[in-house]
């Protein structure tokens, strides 16, 4: 087992996502408690004290983000749940949307109360059809019982929720860019400052939180910040939903208590690698987090007790990140050059085109890697890839340009010999294998 | 698009007043779902209904991958070819599809039955490889399961 639970603490059945089932496991009690006995700032205080860090990728303390808004300043404020889950390898928010949508809705009501929000949004990626159907049904259930709309539970607090479906753009997962999408324009990321809590949606103070981050709010208000802090590590409290894919025996979404042994998670909970292959590498948190070799991560073998644990600080110290929680497991015999080709094609395709270093740089890197894979690589190509990747760092408005560079340099750092081999021989050292054979 | 206006009006009730442009992407998506693509007359209708400039609608249309200005096939087959799906057989799946349909990604069969596309990560990596057929995900696919699926799409 992967430690204590905050979100996956119930049995998934055919109707466990419904309002009745959510209420039966204590759902909406925290909302009742807050509306009756807490001031908005008391709710924010609980979130600050819980120490919960954002679960979308950047791990910024959620409570500190909320403190950027004064609920009593008389202007409109907005709350947006970022459900534009598009980071390759990541499908954990989908679990919340499909199986526990009311945890998200109750949490959004609590957050709206805390932040003085009258209109809240869920920005859900356009391709998520089943998750949207589940969420939409949950919203209608909640409206029918007076949990949204005017004067909720007779408290005088009113809040509406709009479920906004995206239309296919990876960049919308970037919090400031989805504001443009909701405003009816192209989704271009915005320069900060001003922070979104100062000037966000419709130029008003706005909080954008990841689905998983928000969905934990109801648990924190129900059980208290102290109870949350008892889970996980001192610096990384709570749990993370980790979505595991690639060459792994039991892929899927797991809730992992922060500080849990990575080796144990991989080799026991996830059943180890497909066909008992040896581990070559792991991408810990979506392809924008730096790849780690199995050796560096010290998670090569099942009993690796000295290996890394899954928490924000440890991964950061190892030169990578828990990122979006999208863990991709890569077996020995996989061609890393072709994997990087897919990643660079992706960044090129999804660059929104606003900033020159990202728009041009991802295109250059894509063309160079295509040339290498076509057997026409040149000796200087590796250096050129490094040069372009580093030029992206810090020169773009949003983090996606940086991320493309980090992903590329980490692959080159760790597997340089494979790139050199491909360029020298005009073919893959591993037969171009992507699948586990 | 005029017959969809009552639906759009309902959506408006949950929005803050004065921000009708917020409905642009939702309206375009709904029209596309209804007609299969966005026609010139739809753009005219939205200029009038939302009070949004035509250029803004054109900009939005050319930005988002799911919005189309041209009619496509009855069944839109979208193969994810990102990292996790490729590691679980997406390339074989795509080869099988191009062979069976006789078209390449981005093309439509002459009988307008199928349009084939490749897409980036659909968030279905734990059940890879995934194929999206219109709105529905078909997960854990292999060529044999794909053949069974294709037969059902007439």
Describe, in plain words, how this protein is organized in 3D.
Chain A is an alpha/beta fold and about 425 residues long. Chain A contains 17 helices and eleven strands. In chain A, the strands form three sheets. In chain A, strands 6-5-11-8-9 form a five-stranded mixed β-sheet, covered by helices on one side. Chain A is globular, with a radius of gyration of 22 Å. The two termini of chain B are about 25 Å apart. Chain B is elongated and about 50 Å long. The longest helix of chain B is centred in the N-terminal third of the chain and has 12 residues, at about 25-35. Chains A and B meet through strand 3, strand 5, strand 11 and helix 14 of A and helix 2, helix 4 and helix 5 of B.
Radius of gyration of chain B: 18 Å
- Tally of alpha and pi helices of chain A: 17
As residue ranges, the low-confidence spans of chain A are none
Structural class based on helices, strands and sheet pairing of chain B: alpha+beta
Tell me the quaternary state: heterodimer
Measured by residues with Cβ under 8 Å of the partner chain's Cβ, the largest interface is: A-B, 59 and 48 residues
The H-and-E topology of chain A, N to C, reads as HHHHEHHEHEHEHHHEEEHEEEHEHHHH
Question: So what's the overall shape of chain B?
Answer: elongated
Task: Indicate the CATH class of the largest domain in chain A.
Answer: Alpha Beta
Fraction of residues of chain A in helices? Answer: 40-55%
Strand portion of chain B, in percent?
A: 5-15%
CATH-defined topology of the largest domain in chain A: Rossmann fold
| Tally of individual domains of chain B | 2
Main structural class of chain A: alpha/beta
- Give the overall average pLDDT of chain B: 96
Shape of chain A: globular
Largest sheet of chain A: 5 strands, mixed
Within CATH, the superfamily of the largest domain in chain A carries the name NADH-ubiquinone oxidoreductase 51kDa subunit
CATH domain fold name of the largest domain in chain B: Glutaredoxin
Radius of gyration of chain A from CA coordinates: 22 Å
